[in-house]
Design a protein that fits this description.
CATH class of the largest domain in chain B: Alpha Beta
Radius of gyration of chain B: 16 Å
Shape of chain A: globular
Number of domains of chain A: 3
CATH class of the largest domain in chain A: Alpha Beta
Strand content of chain B: 15-25%
Order of helices and strands of chain B: EEHEEEHHHH
Strand order of the largest sheet of chain A: 4-5-10-6-7
Largest sheet of chain A: 5 strands, antiparallel
Number of domains of chain B: 2
Distance between the termini of chain B: 50 Å
Largest sheet of chain B: 5 strands, mixed
CATH architecture of the largest domain in chain A: 2-Layer Sandwich
CATH topology of the largest domain in chain B: Ubiquitin-like (UB roll)
Number of strands of chain A: 14
Radius of gyration of chain A: 18 Å
Oligomer: heterodimer
Largest interface: A-B, 31 and 33 residues
CATH architecture of the largest domain in chain B: Roll
Amino acid sequence: MLLREVEYAKPSSVAEALAILAANDGARALAGGQTLVNVMKARAASPDALVDLNGLEELKGIDLAADGTLSIGPMTTYAEICGSAEARARPIRGEVCAQIADVQVRNRGTIGGNICANDPTNHLPPLLTAIGAQMTVTGAGGDERSVPAEEFFVGVYLTAVGPGELLTRIVIPAGRHDGFAAVTLGADGTCIVNAAASVDGSLRVAVGCVGATPVLVHPASADDDAVREAVRGAGFDAPSDVHASSEYRAHLAEVLAVRAVRQATERAGG
Amino acid sequence: MESSRAITVTINGVEYEREVEARKLLIHFIRDDLDLTGSHIGCDTGNCGACSVIVDGVLLKSCMLLAVQADGATIETVEGLSESGELTPLQQAFSDHHALQCGYCTPGMLMSATALLRSNPNPSEAEVRKALQGNICRCTGYWNIIEAVRAAAAQ
């Protein structure tokens, strides 16, 4: 498919990328392109210019701090996360990335692209919400702000990253144990419903595919009934489509939340 | 910012220098500009894998990459698998095991299987299935493709 005419820039630093984005209203950052290039083919997105973030080493890499905090560059690919010794400190990240799409997409698609696209069926928005990730967003002047996941995901395809800004770091706090469960269209396919859980004394559960953004709940305990009750009480109105009715999605939300919580509590040692 | 730029890529050992529009996908550059038509366009939506090529050692779908992004890259396509004109063990195994019917998906299947066997010379059946997940075949039911990859690995 021939794309609409588009300008292209390949900045050599984050500062240069931010300057180009700030100076051009219709410019958009190009991460792995495994979503953006396809929506451009369909004319569902039609940026005037692409600012290619590939090759910016500042935006890559996984650092494990002495206290166990993981800091991940947004241009780190799924495959790099799957293969990273540092990321294994928090195995859920690699486990979930290994379930996304296929080898080719995992080789090119990035964690930052996944969450900035914020497709409601993506794996990583609910996962990062449950595990309490903090996103560093950088503006044109180099000003940084830290946005918690529950405020980062704003709406369908919308995040807290505004015009002229870039997601520059994803920070995952230490000391939690995590779980993830999904019902997908075929093995490693698109999620119909997914759920992630993270436990560290308190329990955080985020359900995906049932609303515009991940639905975060805090069950009173890890008991199956408490988890089900918390999901039921979240007040979301799950969409209906050819794959599942709204009622079935609501049912799956409870079932998958329970499975994710069980995995997290097993990891926490009971 | 520019709407086109001059790029240099090395494909199957041959260096090409061309001016390309920024909007041109890598698969169109390979097929239309360079006339290397072994790599196919199937779905053009990133799902089918018929356009899979190896870029700087990494298996990618060339319909989800801009040609300008490949500037400086070393690319392998299906035409480059066999250097001598003889079939590679993997290609021969595809023939021996009837791993293709219409053949449309085959270039992508061969590139994915080649990438797999480089990183994992002796894959299990499950590993072959996982490695070929990004390649859709609408004829064979996959069974013979998986057998062919495992047979090539056993050689």
